[in-house]
Amino acid sequence: MAISAKDVMELRKQTDCGMMECKKALTEADGNFEKAIEILRERGLATAAKKASRVAAEGMVYADYCPACKVGVVIEVNAETDFVAKNDKFVDFVKETTKVIMKQNPADVEALMACKTEAGETVDEALKNLILVIKENIKVRRFTRYEGVCSAYVHGGGTHGILVNFETTNDIDAKDEFVAYGKDIAMQVAAANPGYVDEASVPAEVVAKEKEIMLAQMAQDPKTANKPEAVKEKMIEGKIKKFFKENCLVDQEFVKDGDLTVAQYTAKVAKDLGGEIKIVKFARFVKGEGLEKRADDFASEVASMVK
């Protein structure tokens, strides 16, 4: 019998399964909704929808760069437990999704879900199949894609993922020394957690807010409260310089050599390689950052089962 789009949409609404899965189930069930739901449940597809409500704040962050196509990607894929990050199928899904982002350049996660993998299925279909195997809620949370010369770094087996974008001249990005430099800068971002590339990239409102906070602190400190405004302004200048040094990547002390700033280290490497290097932007992902972690209370769970 013919299956209408309305019926497919209704089954999808009830089960949250994919459109194609719903259509296939309805076709096999001759349009019987209850039978179609039973078919989806038997295949394990309907359970994926139930898992979608469970907290996913573990998983892994991954970053990769393709020197041949000059595209870099950093991605976060979450799951419910940290054990999943060690599952080969999960890791393969993350890496395959990264390749899809590199090649197809989706606008956002929603667009990514509709992209096709090399196996011919959509990322959304691959994700649902993975949920069936791993039996946890899994979500692609976010990604950043840069075109141009990049350096990618993954720390702690997937706790941190860093992607740094550069502008270079004279093809120095192809040299091993530049690759080592790029990794150093990515590790700097991972360790020192800068908020901005340089002073020029710090929004004016951020600087203004910092000054406001500093002035309020001075007003409450007996040692500075009664100082002339000109003196306070001079002190503020010094504090803002310190703020830039701590929060701007190029102004930070280089983690491998405290005698150099990142800008000085960059200039040194560029001179040695016979070209120019500019750090353009970076993305720093931390696994589960900003997400509510699942808090398992085993005692309460057992108590509820007893009741």
Architecture overview:
- It comes from Faecalibacterium intestinale.
- The protein is of the alpha+beta class and 307 residues long.
- Helices cover 48% and strands 19% of the residues.
- It has helices at 5-15, 19-28, 33-42, 45-51, 88-104, 109-113, 123-134, 176-192, 204-220, 229-247, 262-273, 298-306, and strands spanning 60-66, 71-78, 139-147, 149-155, 160-168, 253-254, 257-261, 277-286.
- Strands 1-2-3 form a three-stranded antiparallel β-sheet, covered by helices on one side.
- The radius of gyration is 26 Å and the shape is elongated.
The rounded Rg comes to 26 Å
Strand order of the largest sheet: 1-2-3
Biggest sheet layout: 3 strands, antiparallel
Give the uncertain stretches in residue-range form: 294-307
Strand content: 15-25%
Could you give a short description of this structure?
This is Elongation factor Ts. By secondary structure, the chain is of the alpha+beta class.
Keywords:
single chain, 307 residues, alpha+beta, 3-stranded antiparallel sheet, 48% helix, 19% strand, protein biosynthesis, Transl_elong_Ts_CS
Please write out the topology:
Elements: H1 5-15, H2 19-28, H3 33-42, H4 45-51, E1 60-66, E2 71-78, H5 88-104, H6 109-113, H7 123-134, E3 139-147, E4 149-155, E5 160-168, H8 176-192, H9 204-220, H10 229-247, E6 253-254, E7 257-261, H11 262-273, E8 277-286, H12 298-306
Antiparallel strand pairs: 1-2, 2-3, 4-5, 5-8, 6-7
Helix pairs in contact: 1-2, 2-3, 4-7, 5-7, 8-11, 9-10
